[in-house]
Records
---
Amino acid sequence: MDFFILVYLPQVGMSRPYLFFDMQLHNSYYQLQGLAITDICNQFGTPLYVYDANTIVAQLKTLQTTFAESHVKVKYAAKALTNISVLKLLKKNGSGIDVVSVNEARLALHAGFDPKDIMFTSNSVGIDEIAEAVDLGVYINLDNLSILEQFGKKYGSSYPCCVRLNPSIMAGGNLKISTGHSQSKFGIPVEQMDQIKALVTHYNIVINGLHIHTGSEIKDVDVFMKMADILFDLAVDFTHVKFLDFGGGFKVAYKKEDAVTDMPKLGQRLNTAFADFNQKHNRNLELWIEPGKFIVSEAGYLFTKVNIVKKNPTITFLGVDSGLNHLIRPMMYDAYHEIVNVSNPTGKEQTYTVVGNICETDTLGADRSLNEVREGDILAFKNGGAYGFSMASTYNSRFLPAEVLVINGEAKLIRQRTTFEDLLHGQIDVI
Ligand SMILES: *Cc1c(COP(=O)(O)O)cnc(C)c1O
């Protein structure tokens, strides 16, 4: 027990004042739900992924409340963070789930999700994997004409499917994370609607939903509304359609000054558009969304230890006990993750470049102003909940970090650090 346990926990489920749930500086200690970060790191070791259950649940509730009028179905995009405990926490709080491989569907079933709450959004997969997902009884979302035809041949009208459309909208500003523009591999271009319709007629395919996911980090409400216009137009012709799925991509802040999706405004406009459409066309369409980042990004942190302070003539490098093997977003997407020196909150600010211990250039943050850093200090990488652990690898034969969930004021280990035996597992020595 620790003094900080006295700082009482915020209520889960209230609308979320931004910093209220964040890692807090309290009496010169950083803490999460009343637990000192340095204690958590001492207990479980570093590098360590830590997730705050309160933030995860609060973010989910924000979406449920924002679109309550439209009876929204939130399908959490599992690929952002697939730990079973996180999946169970979301399920317990009323979330469904979006999966992108049949194995993610199996993980979702393992976590207790009902098949009818699982949406399988595939791309570039063969009919075999689709058939496995059909056998599991989950919703199927198809993203190209070839697989739609194969699906039609195999199932006819006996199993419905949703189609993923590419609306030729550039969203999010970054080509690598934008998926709905005309050069993207994702979705069936809306220009090929006649071919979709021809296949549907020929094979009696039952289209139960229309889907657009234009990519990550969409802050512009107008982009969502453009998607809505396209989906509403098409829904008029597809009379079996029961839901319109707007994908994920709600933007969260990586920097304090970042613009984020204006949820109240989006809620108001989308709810109104839905109600108008349903009334005008006498339909009862459901609104589905598939947020990943929005739910888990800000809830997570990667905590690392500074092994080396290296003062070169022009740059001071901080070498930490992690790298692009554990957090690939900075090198892969030029993503900015805020870094905080948890161990020395009152130290004089200096400029550092934070790098990993991988034999690659793995800059995690360049030219950052941090409170003075000493060897042995703990650095926090913020926004570590989404696409952190789930994209981690054992490159350089380093272990995967452990994962901890802070829930009800307790830090619980939810995944062990991998071991040397794990590195050898599955290898066959033939020499
Ligand atoms: C990745 C993905 C999402 C989630 O995107 P976020 O930016 O994390 O919200 C939703 N739907 C599909 C189909 C995806 O591939």
Note: Confidence is low (pLDDT under 50) at residues 1-20.
---
Amino acid sequence: MIPFLDLKNLNLRLSDEFKKAADLVLSNGQYILGNQVSSFENAFAEFCNSDHCIGVGSGLDALTILLEGYKTLGKLQTGDGIIVPANTFIATILAISKAGLVPVLVEPNQDTFNLCPTKVKEAISANTKAIMAVHLYGQMAPMNELKALAEQHHLLLFEDAAQAHGALIDGKKAGAWSDAAAFSFYPGKNLGALGDAGAITTSDAELNSIVRNYRNYGSEVKYVHTQKGVNSRLDELQAAFLSIKLKSLEADNGLRRAMAERYKKDIVNPLIHTPNHPANALSHVWHLYVIRCEQRDRLKLYLHQKGIETLIHYPIPPHKQAAFAELNHLQFPITEKIHNEVLSLPIYPGLSDSNQLKIIAALNAFE
Ligand SMILES: *Cc1c(COP(=O)(O)O)cnc(C)c1O
């Protein structure tokens, strides 16, 4: 079986370094918000061309906390509308709704799977206060255009960068294009921990100090609480592991790009649509390689029978989920078509050339 993702071997490459880091944390005796967290925060802020990075417990928490932070600052109010792509992962929508804000779902561009500036513009109403771009599958949303729209309409701009660590446009990384961005370090992400972890990046000094306290019971000085915060702190051990993995992120993203190029070049079956490759190759880090096929379910089964594991990102769009009954009446034909046709192929550092060739041969033989 060719696994969809071989995380174990990916992490075992770094086994010796991880063990040393764990020993260091053990001998330091400082387990919460210690040196490992602050040194990863500094390294990741610098990596993202952002002034600040605040480590939190997960990507979902990063999204929720950055929204809560802008509510605390008075820049967002309960009930404000946040424009968000209708085809995103559920966490983006959950965070908006958990923060008491209203997700305004907008159809994506069918070729990029990302927000389309024209459709965003049409969706802006008097209630709209922010745009949440999602760099889906690792490809950056059209940030120049979205930034111009946000400025023109006095909206806040955010990034859900959970799938796009290291992607860049015009020399500026994902996480540095907006008022604040959320990252996930879920193990399977391009930069993944050995457990749950996340971070917010921002160059807004006010937001930085608010969320830094919010993640820690709303407290800067111990037992003095200025906000009704939460407990969502980046773990000291996970921070140590992430600092190690950050060093190979660029190289790993390069391997993903080379694999994507090979899929693009060698998949020649007219029943299968390979994804759009952006003119600027650096703006995509290929967290996922997502093909489209009208007979997706049959293709998935066929590949499974050939020993190739694939996944669907995502089988059910947020507006069709039982958890969002209030959105179930909405119709988004592009989003629904995407959810019916997409299939994610294996793409990760450690996927061998010979296995990638097997996947390509199987796809080309599908009829
Ligand atoms: C993974 C992911 C999240 C949530 O991250 P967690 O760390 O699992 O909470 C949010 N948004 C997107 C687009 C993601 O892919």
Note: Residues 58-60, 88-89, 91-92, 134, 160, 162-163, 184, 186, 196, 198 surround pyridoxal-5'-phosphate (CB under 6 Å).
